[in-house]
Amino acid sequence: MLSPFEDAALLESNLGLTNLVARATATADELSRDELRDGARLLVERLAPLRPRTVAVLGIGAYRVAFERPRAILGPQDETLGDPRLWVLPNPSGLNAHYQLDALVERFRALREAVARPGA
């Protein structure tokens, strides 16, 4: 298990983490539409030279606003972010009472299994 200060070590496993908005808030609803949309645009720009196969966004509400997809559902998305395949997962924050641990594990496991398949 890594501490939040060791997230750069994920790069050794070809994984990366980032935020759509580079400021801390107690809850996602403290972020404005403009901040989320600007963050989505910047994310797409940052990903272009990195060419990841898959991008997962945590938080359906933030995703719906940031990427202007009000009817999006959790899981793999029909659209992509350029080349990368796009997934939306529940935010694992303890504030997200909609998803208990078993349900979170199931969603994250589905992503892991999808990216482990050849050609995924």
Structure, explained:
The chain is of the alpha+beta class and 120 residues long. The chain has one domain: Uracil-DNA Glycosylase, subunit E. Helix content is 32%, strand content 13%. It contains 3 helices and 3 strands. The protein has helices spanning 33-47, 60-66, 101-116; strands spanning 54-58, 75-80, 85-89. It has a 3-stranded mixed beta sheet, sandwiched between helices. The longest helix is centred in the last third of the chain and has 16 residues, at 101-116. It starts with 32 loop residues before the first helix and ends with a helix.
What characteristics describe this protein?
32% helix, 3-stranded mixed β-sheet, 3 helices, Uracil-DNA Glycosylase, subunit E, alpha+beta, 13% strand, globular, 120 residues
Short description:
This protein is α+β, with helices and mostly antiparallel strands and 120 residues long.
- What is the overall silhouette? globular
CATH topology-level name: Uracil-DNA Glycosylase, subunit E
The CATH fourth-level homologous superfamily:
Uracil-DNA glycosylase-like domain
Catalogue the unreliable spans.
Answer: none
Mean pLDDT: 85
CATH class: Alpha Beta
Helix content class: 25-40%
